[in-house]
Amino acid sequence: MLLTKEDNRRNFLRLASGAALCGRSLSRGQSGVPPASPPDVSLRLGRISWEVAPGKIVKTTGVNGSSPGPLVRLKEGQQVTIEVSNETGAPDLIHWHGLHIPSAVDGAMEEGSLMIDPHTSRQYSFVAQPSGTRWYHTHTMAGRDLRRATYSGEFGFLSIDPRSEPGVYDQEHFLAFREWDPYMTNGAEGDSSMNVAYKYCSVNSHALGFGEPVRVKQGQRVLFRMLNASATSHRRVAFAGHRFRVVALDGNPVAAPQETEILELGAAERIDAWVEMNQPGVWILGATNDRDREQGLGIVVEYANQNGPPRWVTPSNVRWDYRIFGSAQPHSSSQAVRVPLVFEKKWAGNRWVDYWTINGKSYPKTDPILVKTNETYRLIFDNRSDEAHPVHLHRHTFELVEVEGAATSGVRKDVVVVGPRQKMEVEFKAANPGPTLFHCHQQMHMDYGFMTLLKYV
């Protein structure tokens, strides 16, 4: 997944050269279904295995024989047909995360998207919007089956190029932070609830030091498009000897690009940041947590004509704060309809999985969020639990307007981490009618009640 600008140009031209597209979602391989139009992109879900580190074999399901799956690169406003075939042996579907598309093709069963039966395929046709770093992933439920859903390798980057691309970088690299071989554990000391842990970590498909390094030259500006593809884990990463300049969060340009030594990503969050390559050597870009790096969560960055063991420098313990990328000036609508959403944990007993509630109810009994087309809504996230929640609103983008009591604006996202005992407020315009899923992107939280539907009335 290490691509130069020329690689990306060829990939885009290949995708953009498809035939005229239909505006339907069709299933193939089932009786009574008419033939579908030729797809622009074909994705195959099926069993895969590979050596993530010396002697460590991962077996899971992936896309087109690998994980991450292939980069899907589109042009903003392009109409595209993507065919997904399912060879996993169980019903499945793919969600196009961060796109403003109809519910029927969004890839969430709760919204009405159809499952793909084993040994059949389904076509998703939509207009690629908005531009930015997006991604695709399976959207099934897992429960205690840690072979399914986002525990599996069924994911990949989906990048939508803006109509006008300034091209202010020399290289571009897509980096997915990921764990493998999950297993159930009793959790942290003093916590009798069940949680998930992992045996191996990687950036893309290989552990630190095992895959190909990122090769750079002094003086280059390198754009990293980074994704936390974890099912459950929060990630804090740094690039030894260098600083990131953050230019986009969840694919959306920030109001105030800033330099920072560390990045933090909750599950499903993306960060675009470029780095000036001005420290020749061999370095590590990876997790700040020593144990995570030892398990493989890192990648080597190697300057031309440099050699030797890769170096790690422990970064400062600076606090991550979304607000530094926005403005302190409020930009909220006085007409916004306020929607309080209280998040709480419901202890299920020793050696069991906790349940989660929104306003006192667990899905499917949660009350829907009722909205009217073209009205503005303020969602008030009140996390009364001791765990962080990366909450995701499908098919829409929201703007942060208040974090821990401080006003902000100019930070637009589709996933935001609401910290333990934290309050946060966001606003969005209800401009994409259809059933819309709101949930925590931590797979265990979603599986055990942390979901509701936004419904247009």
CATH superfamily of the largest domain: Cupredoxins -  blue copper proteins
**Helix run count:** 4
Q: Round the Cα radius of gyration to an integer and report it.
A: 21 Å
Amino-to-carboxy terminus distance: 42 Å
Which percent bin holds the helix content?
under 10%
**Under CATH, the topology of the largest domain is which?**
Immunoglobulin-like
**CATH class identity of the largest domain:** Mainly Beta
Q: How many domains is the backbone divided into?
A: 3
CATH architecture of the largest domain: Sandwich
Topology, number of strands: 33
What structural category characterises the helix and strand content? Answer: mainly beta
Q: What general form does the structure show?
A: globular
Model regions low in confidence, pLDDT < 50 over at least 5 residues: 1-35
Key features?
Immunoglobulin-like; disordered N terminus; globular; 457 residues; 3 domains
Task: Give your account of this protein's structure.
With 457 residues, the chain is mostly beta strands. It has 3 domains: 2-161, Sandwich (Immunoglobulin-like); 171-320, Cupredoxins -  blue copper proteins (Immunoglobulin-like), CATH 2.60.40.420; 337-456, Sandwich (Immunoglobulin-like), CATH 2.60.40. The protein is built from 4 helices and 33 strands. The chain has helices spanning 5-16, 103-106, 290-294, 443-447; strands at 2-3, 27-28, 41-53, 56-63, 72-75, 79-86, 94-97, 121-127, 132-138, 155-161, 171-185, 195-203, 214-216, 221-228, 235-239, 244-249, 252-260, 262-265, 270-276, 282-287, 298-303, 337-346, 355-358, 369-371, 376-383, 389-393, 398-403, 406-407, 412-413, 415-418, 423-429, 436-440, 451-456. The strands form 6 sheets. Strands 1, 11, 12, 14, 16, 17 and 19 form a 7-stranded mixed sheet that branches. Strands 22, 23, 25, 27, 28, 29 and 31 form a 7-stranded mixed sheet that branches. The radius of gyration is 21 Å and the shape is globular.
